[in-house]
User: Fold these one by one.
Assistant:
Number 1:
Amino acid sequence: MSNQDIFRSARHLKPALFYRAGRPAVLCLFLGCLCGLVLAGCWRGPDSPGAVRAITIAGSTSVQPFAEKLAEEYMRRHSEVRIDIQGGGSSAGIYAAQQGVADLGASSRELVKAEKELMEIPIAYDGIAIIVNKDNPLENLSLEQIRQIYQGKITDWAELGLPSHSIHLITREEGSGTRNAFEELAMGKEAYITPAALVQDSNGSVREIVANDPHALGYISMGLVEPRVRAIAVDGVLPTRENVKNHSYKLVRRFLLVTQELKPGPCQDFVNFILSPKGQSLLETEGLVGVAD
Amino acid sequence: MKREVFIERVLLFLALSSIGSLLLITIFIFLEGVPLIAHAGLKKFLLTSHWAPTKGHFGILAMIISSILVTLGAMVLGVPLGLACAISLAEFSPERVKTLLKPTLELLAGIPSVVYGFLGVIWLVPLIRDYLGGPGLSLLAGSVILGIMILPTIISISIDALSAVPDLYRDGSIALGATNWQTVRRVVLPAARSGIITAVILGMGRAIGETMAVIMVAGNALKIPTSVLDPVRTLTSNIALELAYATGRHREALFATGIVLFVIIMILNFTASAITRRR
């Protein structure tokens, strides 16, 4: 049937649908259902009681994959405990912990003053690596140079002592935890990242572009650096495990779990597991740096 | 008879429920987005290009311009190709070629957009970066991918429009001594004009609404582009990119972006149906 036919037949249908007698009842029923749907959508049921030994963790999507790994391992050992992990972002996680909706909130940013009454448990460090293509000879950037590049003041590799070519700058999308941490650690509070920067919505796609483009520069989580890209030194310090641990590498954020109070029971036990050598080594194999010395 | 009335009512109810969901979506988008437009001011929202929603700047001008440019680029590529394809299939191809090629073309519409985007990233983007310069992820890459994606829409609706022209017109023209091409150009195309315009507008709607492929190949930078090699962010990309972590005003701002998109697509669709009806 051609497109015109569709339009034409639609016009023939109209009177049949709307103007024939005896329709108000159906219309009323329909509108009633519509209202019902709206009400059902607005009404939120009480939180389901769930299993007795359940732990809810909500928050940072940067922490989420690591928390899932930990939970998986923990649940293998303790089959009676169920751990639910939700995303939502650091702020949502902290809010959930404040409200007591989640047993533990996961945050990849530091708490602000108003949130300080929460108990914070650092579980790992995550370095943010500045990456370039493996064919790029660049070795080192100062924090000030990184800031100027991302502010759009340095736009050509020539200004960094390399053959002249425009820098293909890559950043993450507004709201991303990695971007947030990068802005705080490298850019300072008031600095804006230049609108000319390419925006990608995951660590993986930033890495993919840098791996394929010799003139690209981006930042990703340290644990996700692959041989196809090269992490450069910041202020002369390479993003290695040791340098993160001894605090000489500057671009490091903490992964926190926050809670109102750590209740004895499965929740306390899970936190203990995370901080135990087993839990910490699990995080280290996933590319993070543990908090234990 | 009673039974027939009952079935009719059930059908009517079902028909209304589809309209109802459209209604609900519309109400929802506006409820979520309008408070932000009121907060930021309509003029500031539409006519400035500083977008930093977590820091209180909500200007989407750059994205509106980018959306329009990407769509225009797709039209420049897709319309001549699609129209040529439709004319050749409808007017100059033997029936057997037509029955083989038309379903094949419609299959093209069934390829998920993420596949187009992936092809763009691994094939088109490096090509642009190596031969034309820039980061490759660009306005041009977005336009080319969209131009290909809208081909099935344009071709199949145009073919329908051309086949709807009565053979009498063609016979008459040929009887007067016109060649085949003259017949197509002077008689068939003008007769099918409204259908072809509808095809173009629906293709345009598809291009402006496409998201996944554009996010993957267009680079998503927030600047107003100054060259076809500049990366751009369209309205749809903006929503999909930032949706995951958006809360509060930021989330409202994305819904407000949705309102702008909604209005643009409504205008396009109304224009399309108005043109078809005027015939």
Note: Chain B touches chain A through 53 residues (CB under 8 Å).
Number 2:
Amino acid sequence: MRAESKGMTHTAATAVEAPFAVSVRDVNMVFDGVHAVRDASFDLEKGRFLTILGPSGSGKTTLLRMIAGFGQPTSGEVFINGLAVGSVPPHKRSIGMVFQKLALFPHLTAAENVAFPLRMRRFDARTIPDRVHRYLDLVKLGKLGDRRIHELSGGQQQRVAIARALVFEPDLLLLDEPLAALDRKLREEMQLEFRRIQRELDVTTINVTHDQREALVVSDEIIVMDHGRIQQKARPEATYRQPKNAFVANFIGVTNFVDGVVANVDGERIVFGHAGFAGRSGNGFRPATGVSARGALRAEQIRIGGGREALGDVDTVFGGIVTDAIFEGERVVYEVAVADLGGTTLRVFDHDPVTHSQHDVGSSVALGWNVKDVLVFGD
Amino acid sequence: MRPSRTSYPLSWRLMDAVEAIAAAVWPRSFSAAVPWLMLMPAVVLVGLLVLGLWDMADGSFRKLDTATFLPSDDYSLANYDRAFTEKLFFTVASRSLIGSLIVTVITLVFAFPYSYVMVRTRSTFLRKFLLIALFLPFFIGQVVRAYGWLIILGSQGMVNEALGFVGVAPIRLLYNYPAVLFGLVQYMLPFAVLMLAPALTAIPEEMESAAGSLGANWVRTFIHVVLPLAKPGFIGAGLVVMTLSLTDFAIPAILGGGSQDFIANAIYDQFFRTSDQGMGATLALLLVAVGSIMVGVVFALFGAGTLAMGRSK
């Protein structure tokens, strides 16, 4: 398929079977000797909101920029609406992009910024003011069109950038971490705005972020990247509940890891390491006895109490000593050293309004969880 | 207990001693005066210049007594009358003004791509090469450089020799207006590049990417984004090139060979050839006036803020 698509860029034959809004096929990117993206492949259906999530240096921005047309893949191909776009420069792609630092034009007003893509793309000049108004209304900036960029607040500038990226009705909206610089409250507000606007216009969107919460809140689908590789592509709930490997489990949510050597495998149930610590096989992991393994256990899956009876219905109980108790308002975060797990410190969230901040540093506590909540991966 | 003072390097302890002496000599309550004190050398230098100008202004109103070859004792507007009516001065003035305008435009056109590549290139080698190529002529000096052009462009120079090989008769490349303008452009280019570079550096590359994703090809990106944002740099560079070439002496003298005098050459002639100090002073003051008016007009049109000075909002 890929071989025959080469060199036939402008014929219908290049279309991949299903007309996905975006298809990325075996894309690699190497520059300055750095292999920034490795064998990336995914499809995105029209109208979906995809977030590419990863730490800095994971290749997420490089992947996004290749879709936008800034930078050619070293190998592989990007398809937009089924057509290979390898040789199409950015200004001929129908893509709206919101940049990390917004890149609003300081010499123009908000309305002129929004009108810019319409003028560059030679829209009928008579329709431009009306359309600019409509999109300024969409982002709730109806009255501020005449303001210069530096006269707007951070949140308002975000809105101008969104309006500018969408006003020419692109096939695809790309968001290159535009919320990274905002304070938390504004960021959370803008996340909901992105989601509202995306649903209102039904525009296919790819968002890049290192903020796991943002990924969970805004997306229909999440791609987790690390070291240039796509680790997992799944819906937010699935990414959270069934991480495909230890990296994903660690990157999203607060996760405790317990390392050990596999003692016994019974179907899904894997017993490994210390004192009968057991978990459920993650991502079809079927180790032989004696292989080292990691168990991943979310902080909120662990219950904490003064004794066994306070934990309720759990099938695993370990005792530990509280080494730190951090009051975070709606929850208390305990760090508990568990001697039976080789001194491993487990992080535990306590949201319970009754037991809340009952355990002092140094006190003995019981920790309980269910084996099904421990996901076991290979190293 | 803090570690012993002797654990700090000697240079730090010396600085501590200097600071202690300074504190004793110059108590804290004087500290408000420090910025003014630091401004003093510059103020004194400019002040001396103004004193000199005052003396020249006085001289410009004294006519040269052709009998005694001394300036007259009484004041008159005779020198100004000559400056505005004599054809020679008009020719020289218009030649300098038009020349400096042409030089400014050409220099900016050449300087922009140079500084753009210098600022935007990813190759550190190319950036260093361009920077060195820019600074090298500075080390040589204006007169030597102009002399170099004589060697290259003279009637038996390298260019004409090369033309001779292909059977073209020697062409007169020197001692005309284009030769002077050519020399000035070559001389001004580094100034313009150096003044444009910071302005271009200040434009985030993301702006150009954004313009691209919004549908602008590189020509439109240049016209609608880079040019307006680089305006302070263009105005600063333009002003410097314009005033420097308007007042230049060596290039018109050497590459013009006396036939292409600019105002500075005319002033020189008045002071040192005809010894008419009054006339020289008059021309000099008029040159200062023209230059000031030009700068004033540019500031009035674009505002001093276009030089990217003043606090940003």
Note: The interface with chain B takes residues 68-70, 89-91, 93, 95-97, 99-101, 103-107, 116-117, 120-121, 150, 164-165, 168, 174 of chain A (CB under 8 Å).
